[in-house]
Design a protein that fits this description.
The complex is a heterotrimer of chains A (341), B (274) and C (302). Chain A is 39% helix and 18% strand. Chain A has 341 residues and is of the alpha/beta class. The chains are: A alpha/beta (341), B mainly alpha (274), C mainly alpha (302).
Amino acid sequence: MKRLMTATALLLATTGLASAEGVLQLYNWGNYTSPELLEKFKAETGITVTVTDYDSNDVALAKIEAGGHGFDLVVPSANYVKIFADKGLTVPLDLARLPSHANIAPEWMNVDWDPGRTNSIPWQWGTVGVAVDTAVYSGDINTSAVWLEVPDELKGKINVVPEMTDIVTLATLYYGGEPCSEDLAVLQKVRDGLLAAKPNWIAMDYGATEKMSNKDWAASVNWNGSSMRVRENVPTVAYGYPKEGYTLWMDSVMLLKDAQNVDEAYAFMEFILKPENAALISNFAKYANGISGSEPFMDPAMASAPEVVIPEEFKANGVFMPVCSEKAREYMTAIWTELQK
Amino acid sequence: MAERGFQVARLPGFATTAIIVFVALYLPIFTLVAYSFNASTSLAVWGGFSLDWYAKAWDNSQVKDATIRSLIIASFAAVISTTVATMAALGTTRRRAFKGQTFIYVMINQPLMVPEIVTAVALMIVFGLIKVWLTSIGMGGLTTGLGYLILAHSAFCIPFAYLPIRARLEGMDLTLETAAADLYATPWQTFRRVTLPLLAPGMIAGAMLAFVISLDDVVITEFVKSGGQDTLPTYMLGQMRRQLTPEINAVSTMLLGLTVVLLTAFFLLTRKKT
Amino acid sequence: MSPAEENAIRSSARTGWLLSLPALLILFVAAAGPLIIVVIYSFLTPGQHGNVVWDFSTDGWVGVLWSKDIFTGEWALADAHLTIFWRSLWLSFLTTAFTFLVGFPTAWFIATRPAKERALWLFLITIPFWTNLLIRTYAINEVLRKEGLMNTVLMGLGITDTPIEVLYTQTAIFIGMTYVYLPLMVLPLFAAIDRFDMKLLEAGYDLYASRMQVLRRVILPIVKPGIIAGSILVFVPSLGAYVTPRVLGGGKQMMIGNFIELQFLQGKNWPLGAALSMLLLVVVMAALLVYVRYANKGSSHG
């Protein structure tokens, strides 16, 4: 017993290496960080990156707000970037320490949630559309009707990812509203439409890459990179860009206020601003990265993939998620909760 | 097999049920092991035999670290929770009812009564406060150890260890202990030589449950872990949102293999002794 | 009451408390204590992006049963919440009943093996559970899916012609929970049966009792503590189950655990989540207290 107590005390007291030289604590989405990238970074700078996973923006936000987390960098999605910054959980970047900051692609420089990119730098971006096995359903897939007014062929075979912001926004666009709508007439249509469609969905779950590849699901509201992976397994699967509007998202790297390894964090951010390194991130997770000039370094299959390179005809329908007002978010949450029962 | 007369302990249908249960228990495990040898990236569609995922898992330092971390935490949690649960079980059973006994009982079972997510959020807030405070008084070094996770795991493992031990203790034959005391054995001797051996099956059951429960935990760990403290389940949770690959099956199969080897060794050794 | 007797009671109580102290300490620091925060949070106002604002409010508690329609502004009984409560209770009850139904024969079977085989059978029952919950639940998913092992076997045996689609239904959750919680029933049952003196059975049969009578009159009363321990260990965690409904219910069959998580995460209504948790805690605690009373009365020697 005594030995046990001593051992416990020792463990409790174990000083981590958080502030030691040459380490960096990255808090990122699971299965999202290229091991090759980290190896290259270590070879160039001698800094070891420890990756810890999260699986939702909300968990990451809650944990960082609680304090004592020991992380240096976090990678929240678009609208969460502003939330992190507004709450003072992250610090504005010292652009003088990021000479490659200008590599950020022009369309990603002045985003609504971080104008001028003074708080965050791009990690990866993508779209939310519908992946459909065209062998099962041969109709038009470039519409949200595929999942909101489910065609008979797809009834009980279509999945919807459980992402509140994306799903409510896609539905709002479908029913003629704007993202972050506060228009009750539109929102009522959104709620009724979602509730009516839900019985036709097989699930509201993640894992489309796996479940569409093994044909458990014939279609899914899904991310583009995942859809590309599915197509590589099942060639008949195509990715639709809803003409009523689809959402664009981006996950960005932010420096935490209580980061212990600030120099290492800047070294890492500068590193991933370089096109050849940003391409490594993309090649691993199959999403574009928002850094100009990274295309030549990317996997050729990706550079031509219709899931990654948005076809010209659909470009105009893409919607960047703005930061919603409190009221709009309240409506969104209420609709979502009702949909969850 | 020859019928050895009338067996009192045989109840009709029991053996059949038990065998069906064992078969059903191993069906998913069979799938899990089989797909660890899958050549494709799928957990469900067979793409030919391959050992690739074993090689990948072995080379993946994130997986390896997470697995070892899980085992360390589970071992500590099992030992700590079984020890304190045994003491508590001895303190709350087989004695005259005393004031507060019910309170102790409810307290011990409390972790069972709220969903994990609640304990998780509560611990996140409280441990966060403690860590921020420690940092502010210049003791930031105390904020990064595995201790917080071990403490959290030990706590929610206590009821799982306590209940089987208590079930064993309740109505356990007192004659032997009284006999020992009559023979002038000290209370400690009585405990070591008589009570403990009688209690052992309950303690083993309790410790096994605690170990398994700790190994399973995902929600509390997800909220309590700090930088570089992913366990196997939280690593998997991170993967789940994008894609799970047979790599996870390979890790699980290796762990399973290790368990079987260790348990078999333990089984053979203890059998030789008797 | 004689002074000696009073003394004995006092010393018994002291030892009882002292022995329980380490467990209570750990629980206070890392389980029950932090829940005080949850109680406080249930009376606060939700923050803009999760968390809370320190303004007193009872909205969290009102929201447990009532909800305001965002379009009409009318307050109505929150049928969504009731659906979820009922589903959780019902599935947990089914799981407990079924784990007992199959767990009792299994535990009995193990306990009646020759002494040296017993450990082996015990290992066999625990081995599947040394793989972690997530991967195990995923494996069940693979067994249950349309083209999975279950349907292959059923169709191969000619029991059914078309694959049975159970995945993402309540049945799938029930099957999953039964699987996941089975050892929590078997192990305490085994511990209780194991110390059961089989001679009692002979005595029972000698008195010409039928097998059913022996089961009811002799066996069940003696293994009762094990049944109760097992039932608590299965029922209570089932109520708050999170992983199984999420993986096997496909996000469409929420249970209380998932619903509370929704409030703390995407829903960003911590006070409601806190109130729901406290309600669950109170209900389960009340049930346990009733049991403690009843159990203490039932076994005065206990």
